[in-house]
Design brief:
Distance between the termini: 59 Å
Bound molecules: nicotinamide-adenine-dinucleotide
Number of domains: 2
CATH superfamily of the largest domain: Aldehyde Dehydrogenase, Chain A, domain 1
Radius of gyration: 25 Å
CATH topology of the largest domain: Aldehyde Dehydrogenase, Chain A, domain 1
Strand content: 15-25%
Number of strands: 23
CATH class of the largest domain: Alpha Beta
CATH architecture of the largest domain: 3-Layer(aba) Sandwich
Mean pLDDT: 96
Oligomer: single chain
Low-confidence stretches: 1-9
């Protein structure tokens, strides 16, 4: 691998013009290993002036890159795909060291990110336009899709590799320069990805990493040379990004938070449903935007479902994500762990039945660990139901009928993902048709679309109208142009063309 420049300090630097660049703002933030609670490094936090300088290099790179042939772009993407695949283990270890998720999960997010790179290798096909010969007499009409220039991605802590890959693979394939502002909580994966892009042959400046917090984000939102913003994170920030970005005339897709429900019907395969719900509720310590956080149990299935979930929890091991045999790692920060633990008490105080209490489990004392919690008899006005907890807390809401469960899901402000567990095709069909949620699973707990579809929720889970990656990602990162063309009939030309002027 190209060793462009080794880090000069334990401060995590920016990546500008194909090299690590130290921050100059004088501001940094600590980065922790959530499994030990120790500060392992600091990350530079860019000032508006540093963002401006980084965007300027991206502008120059974008002007060149838009002219790169489709076959050259595809070749770079193929090389990048190979490198990412070959070095998955190293990147997974980096993710686990700063995020805390288990290594298999970290490798899993890279695999899902890789799908997006594979999709983008098809850019020669994806950018094909339409052509209508003889739309009018002697007139042809055809369409083009052209890059926007410099586009930015602002990403959350919970998928430090996958979410940037959702964005940058398509953005770069379409001929744009991409500026990434990763989460300051786990920033190192972005630099590893930057080095792989360089090694794959991507020209310097086409992929930039600028670390930072609100100051850097605002500088991107206000920068006149940033044409589009892709954001993934919590709902209040998504709304803010959308409003400020669009007020500045940018294209914005801003994906927000979630409260994903599973509707379990009385005829469901209980083992399948319980296995699926346990892995979707507690995997990655519940810090997934597609995690299931509410199981809606219809009628007589409730008691059996609660028992089946409860019985599965003791066999799951909580520990450092780097330890073999660990099923669930720590949460991202101490504050977040404490906030999640606070919801368990709030749920109990509000009348929920604490079937399994994560605060009482035997978990490592160092680090930001919390055990798995199962709450039963949760009702819609409780904060454990209304709020996105983003931790290993599963609430069971009991309803009497399918319609009651569907109405509950449809009345929620969030609408990212949902799932139904049933053996009844008619019920499943009615559910997928009537549920007001962007991504739907039928006996599938985490229905993240494959890369050739697009990812996005409805309502407060998405601000903007374009979903992320897949065909909608290609549209987001390009502008359409339609050419209407008429050429004089050669027969009417008075110039000697060197061939007979007849048809
Ligand atoms: P977050 O909203 O706190 O941060 C996301 C990004 O915004 C980070 O890069 C952060 O630096 C930046 N940011 C934070 N506060 C800001 C502010 N005041 N002004 C400007 N920028 C700011 O989210 P997070 O805690 O990193 O991630 C977890 C959240 O992301 C959860 O709500 C989760 O549901 C959501 N998420 C959603 C999806 C989805 O596809 N819908 C996917 C992953 C995560």
């Amino acid at each position: 691998m190209t060793n462009t420049s080794a880090p000069t300090t334990s401060t995590i630097e920016h990546w500008i013009s194909g090299a690590r660049v130290p921050g100059s703002s004088g501001r940094t933030a600590p980065v922790h290993d959530p499994a030990t609670g120790q500060v392992t490094s600091h990350v530079a936090l860019a000032s508006a002036a540093e963002v401006d300088a980084a965007v300027k290099t991206a502008v120059a790179a974008a002007e060149e890159w838009r002219s790169a042939s489709l076959s050259r772009r595809a070749a770079v993407l193929f090389s990048f795909r190979e490198l990412l695949h070959a070095r998955t283990g190293e990147l997974a270890a980096i993710i686990t060291s700063e995020h805390g998720k288990v290594l298999a999960d970290a490798a899993g997010e890279i695999a899902r990110g890789l799908e997006n790179v594979e999709f983008a290798t098809g850019v020669p096909q994806l950018l094909k336009g339409g052509f209508s010969e003889q739309a009018s007499a002697g007139v042809d009409v055809y369409s083009l899709r052209q890059p926007l220039g410099v586009v930015a991605g602002i990403t959350p802590f919970n998928f430090p590799a996958m979410v940037p890959l959702w964005m940058c693979a398509n953005a770069i394939a379409c001929g744009n320069a991409f500026v990434l502002k990763p989460s300051e909580k786990d920033p190192s994966a972005s630099l590893f990805i930057a080095e792989l892009w360089k090694e794959a042959g991507l020209p310097d400046g086409v992929f930039t990493v600028i670390h930072g917090d609100k100051e850097a984000v605002d500088a991107l939102l206000d920068h006149e040379d940033v044409a589009a913003i892709s954001f993934v994170g919590s709902t209040p920030i998504a709304k803010y990004i959308y409003e400020r970005g669009t007020a500045n005339g940018k294209r914005v897709q801003a994906l927000g938070g979630a409260k994903n429900h599973a509707l379990v019907l009385p005829d469901a395969d209980l083992d399948l449903a319980a296995d699926a719900i346990v892995s979707a509720a507690y995997g990655a310590a519940g810090e997934r935007c597609m995690a299931l956080s509410v199981a809606v149990a219809v009628g007589e299935v409730a008691d059996g479902l609660v028992s089946a979930i409860r019985d599965r929890l003791p066999s799951l091991t909580v520990g450092a994500g780097s330890e073999p045999g660990t099923d669930m790692g720590p949460l991202i920060t101490r504050e977040h762990r404490d906030r999640v633990a606070g919801y368990i008490g709030a749920g109990a105080d509000a009348g929920a039945k604490v079937v399994v209490d994560g605060r009482e489990q035997d978990v490592p004392q160092d680090g930001f660990f919390l055990g798995m919690t199962l709450l039963d008899e949760v009702t819609p006005e409780m904060t454990v139901y209304t709020d996105e907890i983003f931790g290993p807390v599963l609430s069971v809401v009991r309803v009497s009928t399918f319609d009651e469960g569907l109405a509950l899901i449809n009345s929620n402000q969030y609408a990212n993902g949902t799932a139904i567990f049933t053996r009844d095709g008619g019920a499943a069909r009615k559910f997928k048709n009537e549920v007001e949620v962007g991504m739907v699973g039928i006996n599938v707990p985490i229905p993240v679309p494959v890369a050739y579809y697009s990812f996005g929720g409805w309502k407060d889970s998405l601000f903007g109208d374009t979903h992320m990656y897949g065909p909608e990602g290609i549209n987001f990162y390009t502008r359409g142009k339609v050419v209407t063309e008429r050429w004089p009939d050669p027969a009417t030309s008075t110039v000697d063309l060197g061939f007979p002027r007849t048809r």
